[in-house]
Amino acid sequence: MRGQGEWRIYSEEALNEIRARTDIVEVVSGYVLLKQAGNTYKGLCPFHTEKTPSFTVSAERQLFYCFGCGAGGDVFSFVMKIENVNFGDAVRMLAERVGVVLSQDDESPEKRAAREKRRRLYDCMEAACRHFETVFAKSPDAKDVRDYVGRRGVSDDTARCFRLGYAPREWDSLLKALTGNGFSREELVSAGLIVPSKSGKGYYDRFRGRLIFPITDISGRVIGFGGRVLDDSEPKYLNSPETALFRKGKTVYGLALAKNSIRNESKAVIVEGYMDAIMCHQFGFTNVTATLGTALTKQQAEAVSRYAPQVIIAYDADAAGEAATLRGMEILADAGAGVKVAVLPAGEDPDSILRKKGKEAFAEVLEDAKPLTAYKLYLIASKTDTSKLDERVKAAKEAARVLAKVESAVERTEYAEKAAEMLGVSCEAMLRDIDGLVKVSGPRRVKRRDPEVQDRFEVSRYTSFKDDIARSGEVVQILKAERMLLRLMWESKEVSEIASKRLKWADLSDERHRKLAQAILSSQEAYPEGIKKGSLTPRQVIGLIDNGEILEYAAGILIGEDEKLPDNLKKAAEDCINVILEHNLVYRIREIEKELASLSCRGEMQKSRELLAELGYLKKRISEEFQPFRGTL
Fold this sequence. Notes:
Layout: H1 4-7, H2 12-21, H3 24-29, E1 35-37, E2 40-43, E3 55-58, E4 63-66, E5 72-73, H4 75-83, H5 87-98, H6 109-138, H7 143-151, H8 156-161, E6 165-167, H9 173-180, H10 185-190, E7 194-196, E8 203-205, E9 210-216, E10 222-229, E11 237-239, H11 255-265, E12 267-271, H12 274-282, E13 288-290, H13 298-305, E14 310-314, H14 319-334, E15 338-341, H15 350-357, H16 359-367, E16 370-371, H17 372-382, H18 389-403, H19 409-423, H20 427-441, H21 451-458, H22 466-471, H23 474-491, H24 493-502, H25 511-526, H26 538-542, H27 548-559, H28 569-602, H29 605-625
Parallel strand pairs: 12-13, 12-14, 14-15
Antiparallel strand pairs: 1-2, 2-3, 3-4, 4-5, 6-9, 7-8, 9-10, 10-11, 15-16
Helix pairs in contact: 4-5, 12-15, 13-14, 15-16, 17-18, 17-19, 18-19, 18-20, 19-20, 23-24, 23-25, 23-28, 24-28, 25-27, 28-29
């Protein structure tokens, strides 16, 4: 989410101009298939798996909200989520899209210097990439690497698409080229492109005599490189070091090229190496990415699963690959992805399968991908000599431990039957072993939403009528009344004035409601010309909500899931206000009654008389002022 400081990097005028020129429906349509439904547009949420569309976009309000998972906000929020970028990057992407020139005059000198340093790093990496590309394409010294790439079956078009390059064997080829273009040695060191010599008297290129694979961020900007030797030198592969731009554990190779296909197919494939990913794309599997090594990290899993609900791991079929696959499947599952593993033939990888057997063979491998539990059972069976009783017994016990962690009893039974058949043991006996383990430790439970969060989620829809408010439970009804009041305030300045006179914003039970109310009031005060026919211009309120979490929550209120507002806005607002005030009175009455019970034990008569007087006053107020609402709390 955007932070307070990050929000203010750019002037309010620049942000408002981007909002004014940007149509959120057009932006979202580049990622989600939307269909018009009344005054809004609906589609399947890109942030969670669903079959019935609950993702809603309002052209009028320039907001989006998913009534299934709670994701919401403005166009900046959407780009941040869908592209997995920070607020500053989202602003820059949208500014470039609509032709707004950004000015950062309000920046402090320190922030301006840091931003300029980062920009220079990006420019430095791009210049290095172009240098490597040029050497690869034109230099006679690169003939061997061009021949190698050709023998690996990589076409010229694919090589250009992935911007393959070559680092000459000279010690300072890149150093000379980039310093000649105006980059300092200090900048090249910061970018991880050159290394100080041990003698301290000079520098030399980090990458020498290697085929170069540029590594980009999600926006396609070069942030690092991977280099492969063509001889027996060590290390075989060399990556850029950790820099201000490049974090190996957070970066996924090829994701910028693959993200649209991943989104369209609702499925991502993760392979192990650069060449695996490149060859997959050449054969039409454009939803394929690669980890930078076999160890999949939590950050990489989150980056990939953000674009698709299903992920297939297709690592090499060796011992290291199997271990990495199991770890990766667990990490992806924890990130909320539906995960499977493509079982590759022994000694093969995606690259070799595609070159030897073609596209159909690899498509079949992906089609036969196994879920996590099935893969674990497959590994157990593949390493068991079923002709030996002791191995069958040992394998059956191991399979039982795997299946005891499966939550669904039906799923456990189905897998137990398959495992028993593979291992040549009795299914009934295996089920007894599984049941024994379940009784001792219980199956692994799927993480559930925190009860308090669940309550908030369930009441995320506001109500339009007093009776609907009154029928709900006590906590739910107050949140509904507050949300409804905020929606009415958004629609009508007159309602805002009524609410301001009758309520103190501290009376609202939810901190987010208090901040949204203040943003609406501030907008009405700051932009009186923006109030037309009693309705506030949506972009003006959005511009004053600089907290991403509150904006996300507010989007659900302000969009309203197509619920119609009551005809009499003032009367509906009065109903909501009365519910809120009466609730606060009843809450105070309960506090007093508890305090009186405590005081009676201590004999504090003066304090008790004061509280009794307040109690009588509050009960009289409820009787006289809130008669229509009595019995609803």
